[in-house]
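Hi Prof. W.,

I finally got the PTS EIIA type-1 domain-containing protein prediction working! I wasn't sure whether to trim anything, so I left the full sequence exactly as given:
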Amino acid sequence: MFNFAFANIGGSAVYITFGTYFMVYVTSAMFTGVPKAQANKLIAMITGLILIIRLVEVFIDPIIGNIVDNTNTRWGKFKPWLIGAGTISSLLLALLFSGIFGLSRISATWFTIMFIPIFITFDIFYSFRDVSYWGMVPALTEDSHERSLFTAAANFSAFGQNIVTIIIVPVVTYVTFVFTGSHNEGQPGWTAFGILIAVVGIICSFVVGLGTHEKHNALRAVTKQKTSLKDMFWALAHNDQMLWTAFPYLIYGFGNAATAGLMFYMFKYVMDKPGLFWITGLIPTIAGFFTSPLYPIINKWVTRKTIYAVSMCSMILAYILLIVSVDDLPMVITAMILYYVPQGFIFMAVILTLTDTIEYGQLKNGTRNEAVTLAIRPMLDKMSGAISNAIVGWVAVAAGMTGTATAASMTPGGISLFKLVAFWIALFLHVAALFIYVFKVKISEKKHAEIVDELQKKLATEGISGAQAADNTTAQTEVTMPGAKAATIAVAAPVSGVSVNLADVVDEHDHKDLPGNGIGIQPTEGKIYAPFDGQVLMLFTTKHVIGLRSNDGLEVLIHVGLGTVNMCGEGFINHVDSGQSFKKGDLLLEFNRDKIQQAGYKDTVVVLLTQGDKVVQTDYTQQEVVSHGDELVKAQLKK
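And this is what came out:
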């Protein structure tokens, strides 16, 4: 969790450096010494290019997510992209902030020719890195609360972007002074700043790539088949909860990105206090140390929909204060607090809702799209950033906030235009986002837990043949060798106790006659042992069900207790995980029989053979009392 969170220091720093401050650099220093008319044309070209590319990414980012989802390497699905794409995008960021080695001031034609492919390459690789980073959350755990901890940790370390806001003016100004003797934001300072952020980005990419580990659980393993682009877009289009979560976040992002992108201009050209711009970095930095750690705690008592609504109301109030008192510093600081503090809560609520729609989509459509679904959020952020860059460039030129302009040279019309875009339009968008999320998003923490439970029950009912680990091809080959008719496989009792026919097993509702091909054992101990040599195919999050495959290809599902899914893992200890190999007699699970019975559930262990027509004959023990290791059943498996 530490390594995952640490990585977002660099990730968030790279994001805000490009998404917010690149246009500040473009409008203030990139074309220093270039005739104003030509500089404005180049600014318009960059603004238009960024807008077009970001809009095209509506289609590109899901494709990137699909590529990540279909990645299968010895290092996992995400690590190659986190390290490789993270390194390349960081290096290209430094190149862009150098004005492509000063080419921006030498030749407009060659600068344009070089800028376009460099920017596109940067954007694609940054997308791979960002999609891989957030897409890894559901690969680390399928528990909604644990996901909130990982997301909270990552959001906590997003203070990297706030540090950028705090240091950008001092660093750029100081380095510029060292190289030129001038106290302003010049090209040397911006180049040094770009290199600094690139170094941090590369370090953090290696930390997350080398320091995190994907979890091979049942729900991920059962959907290891590759997803075509057609299937991917179909699944996304039919995941209504993902769409209703994404849409309000998009329009919220439009307003928020426009305000954030113009915040520097407010301090410099409206308030005439550019030296105080660091406040907009300090406030969210301090807030981040509290909001992210507090979110999982608050979320235990308050639903994330409530957290989202209260946070959005705070930002709406901030806009109202900025509209009526932009010249009053104490009121502006108050508005900054109301504006920045709740953003972490809003981000957490949205990213966790999107993450939970992965299982919702899997249950509804039969397709699990981890990186694709979570590619939606960075895609929306980049679309918002594109709008921000376009708006910043347009407002800067239209209001005269470029080059050597000062607050004294601003006109009332320019100030009014600034307020309209930065505050009024953003206020309307935030109100719209609030109402859409509250009334259209139905997937809650409770609903998600029900979905995961239903998925696992469905998996148990339909069998686990699709859940094999990627490296289990040998066992599969043995089952399907041509020429053989059937193999007889012995299954040992996984627990000591009294054997019971399935027809006589009484469930938690006092109903008899369980369906399926199997046998029950009323246990006299609280330990489950391996019934043969094989591999763990799946372990439910509740730990009461484990799926196994023998080295001969027989698949067995062991249910520990009836109704014990409601215990959510309490009283269970697993000694193996999904994908792990074992030998006959190895301890797989421990369960507390007293806790199960005190909770009002049955502690009966049920052993099921799950391969349907492939199991052609079974011969169950006639012993009433069995010890673990005794032969429980002989099964003939069709080749």
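The chain has three domains: 1-214, 228-443, 449-468+485-637. Does that look reasonable to you?

Thanks,
D.
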